[in-house]
Design brief:
Length: 183
């Protein structure tokens, strides 16, 4: 793919993720094209239908999530810090809202898409690793497992109109993490 075509594709996927987050997956394709700064024809050349665009947005979402987990594992010095960073970043990035927009529409497709199988497995492995290491270090409650952490990754935070989303998400995650702490 040419560099300009790749750039257009990436812009469209990024715009779709934002618009899906804000308005759901039924938003007009024209609005997505406008947000991406491309024409509708360019959008349809890259993505022949809404399903293809939703699938590409889901792949980008899951790939970003896998990268987020890998970075936390690589950069943090202990298991508890890794888990805390990862869950805070998930909340701050509003992954729960995006998952709510994409997942119901493509649940079966996401679960069966071979292109997504590997990235989903990487995420599951990272979550398993973080959970196991945090429990082994004595920082994470023994009754909390990877499935619990997976549910918290998509936690949605309500924010009052006069509040900052980032500050509210941080405060909410501080409360959640205090509840997960073994000590």
């Amino acid at each position: 793919m040419r560099a300009d075509a790749r750039s257009n594709r990436d812009q469209i996927v990024a715009a779709a993720q934002v618009v899906f987050l804000e308005q759901g997956v039924e938003v007009s394709m024209k609005e997505i094209a406008d947000r991406a700064g491309v024409g509708v024809g360019t959008l349809y050349r890259r993505f022949p239908d809404r399903g293809a665009l939703i699938s590409a947005a889901a792949h980008a979402y899951l790939s970003g999530l896998a990268d987020l987990a890998a970075t936390a594992i690589r950069d943090e010095e202990d298991a508890w810090s890794t888990l805390c960073r990862f869950l805070r970043e998930c909340a701050e990035m509003r992954l729960g809202a995006l998952a709510s927009a994409i997942e119901p529409t493509l649940h079966a497709d996401i679960r069966s898409d071979p292109a997504l199988t590997e990235v989903r497995a990487r995420i599951a492995d990272h979550v398993e690793d973080m959970t196991t290491r945090a429990r082994a270090s004595g920082d994470l409650r023994a009754d909390v497992g990877p499935r619990d952490i997976a549910a918290l990754m998509t936690l949605q935070v309500f924010v009052f109109p006069d509040e900052s989303y980032v500050e509210t998400a941080r405060r909410t995650m501080d409360i959640v993490l205090a509840g997960l702490r073994a000590r």
